[in-house]
């Protein structure tokens, strides 16, 4: 651990170039996470429900008791209910060390940017803020991405756990991984490895997130607190009214963003997925927020999701 800190101290004077995330800049975001956490209560994103400073439901079953109004229906003890003819619910031991898992989308669309930094760099920075914030909450940290091989940083506590996650984020978001297998695979793995009461912070391009089947999101959020952070670029949210030259696999082309019909199509393609996710996922107990690449990297901790206007 000391070698990581020493390396970061040496590199601290080297500012990030906005294209590749540096481990030192991710470490330096610790203070932003502390400040963001202090202002977080009561301001947590779309669902309108403030993040609790209490631990989530524990991982170990304790006992069953008779059901009372307000108990979570998902934890009804159906076997005991059938035997006794009275509804019973399971209770769990209080969790002492919750796990926060950072799920990193590494789709090629993230390695792009027009202002301040690439979306991939902003994703790494948002992940760093999440990691430092989780450390302050007393959580153990883990991270994974979708790949053909198991790309998992196993849970670990303390500063050592954070540094392992930050190191992984700085590598994963340095360039598009050749073995990226998609966000859906990463979420399915997260569902398998996380225990009830854990927390998942998902960093994703909107196109990746909207392509994930609803059933996959529901399976993850059934017993886990999920916060989806959507990464955006200013060009996507507020395109200039001009003729924009583009290079595509089919060759060069020009997009007339001064045309109202073209702007409507642009909005549907770039912002439409964000609006769809913001409308649908809160109903599945998933918090959704957006983070534009030129915003402060801790803005998602406190700001409610707002409709993006293109």
Characteristics:
single chain, 310 residues, alpha/beta, six-stranded mixed β-sheet, 20% strand, globular, disordered C terminus
Rg over C-alpha atoms, rounded to the nearest angstrom: 21 Å
Helix and strand content put the structural class at alpha/beta
| Helix and strand sequence | HHHEHEEHEEHHEHHEHEEHHE
Q: How many distinct beta strands?
A: 10
Give the strand order, joined by hyphens, for the main sheet: 5-4-3-6-7-10
Q: Which strand-content bin applies to the residues?
A: 15-25%
Overall pLDDT: 83
Distance between the amino and carboxyl termini: 45 Å
What is the general shape? globular
Uncertain spans, ≥5 residues at pLDDT below 50? 1-14, 39-59, 306-310
Helix fraction bin: 25-40%
Number of helices: 12
Walk me through this protein's architecture.
By secondary structure, this protein is an alpha/beta fold. About 35% of the residues lie in helices and about 20% in strands. The longest helix has 18 residues, at about 120-135.
Question: How do the strands and helices of this protein lay out in sequence?
Answer:
Blueprint: H1 2-11, H2 23-27, H3 30-38, E1 61-66, H4 78-84, E2 88-92, E3 99-104, H5 119-136, E4 140-145, E5 151-156, H6 158-172, H7 183-193, E6 199-204, H8 206-210, H9 214-221, E7 225-232, H10 234-237, E8 243-248, E9 251-256, H11 260-270, H12 272-280, E10 286-292
Parallel strand pairs: 3-4, 3-6, 6-7, 7-10
Antiparallel strand pairs: 1-2, 4-5, 8-9
Short description:
This protein is of the alpha/beta class and 310 residues long.
């Amino acid at each position: 651990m000391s070698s990581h800190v020493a390396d970061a101290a040496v590199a601290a004077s080297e500012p990030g170039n906005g294209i590749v995330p540096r481990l030192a800049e991710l470490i330096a975001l610790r203070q932003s996470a502390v400040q963001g956490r202090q202002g977080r209560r009561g301001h947590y994103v779309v669902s309108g429900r403030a993040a609790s400073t209490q631990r989530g439901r524990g991982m170990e079953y304790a006992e069953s008791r008779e059901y009372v109004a307000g108990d979570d229906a998902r934890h009804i003890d159906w076997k005991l209910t059938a035997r006794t003819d009275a509804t019973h619910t399971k209770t769990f031991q209080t969790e002492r060390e919750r796990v926060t898992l950072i799920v990193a989308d590494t789709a090629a669309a993230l390695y792009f940017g027009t202002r301040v930094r690439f979306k991939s760099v902003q994703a790494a920075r948002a992940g760093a803020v999440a990691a430092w914030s989780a450390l302050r909450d007393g959580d153990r940290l883990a991270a994974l991405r979708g790949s053909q091989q198991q790309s998992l940083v196993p849970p670990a506590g303390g500063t050592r756990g954070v540094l392992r996650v930050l190191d992984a984020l700085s590598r994963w978001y340095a360039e598009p991984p050749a073995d990226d297998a998609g966000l859906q695979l990463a979420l399915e793995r997260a569902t398998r490895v996380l225990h009830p009461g854990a927390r998942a912070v998902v960093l994703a391009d909107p196109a990746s997130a909207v392509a994930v089947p609803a059933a996959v999101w529901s399976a993850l959020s059934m017993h886990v607190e999920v916060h989806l952070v959507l990464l955006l670029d200013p060009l996507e949210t507020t395109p200039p009214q001009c003729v924009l030259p583009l290079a595509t696999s089919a060759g060069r082309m020009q997009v007339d963003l001064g045309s109202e019909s073209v702007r409507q199509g642009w909005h549907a393609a770039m912002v439409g997925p964000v609006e769809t996710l913001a409308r649908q996922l809160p109903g599945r107990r998933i918090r959704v927020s957006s983070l534009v690449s030129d915003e402060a990297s801790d803005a998602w901790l406190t700001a409610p999701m707002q409709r993006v206007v293109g």
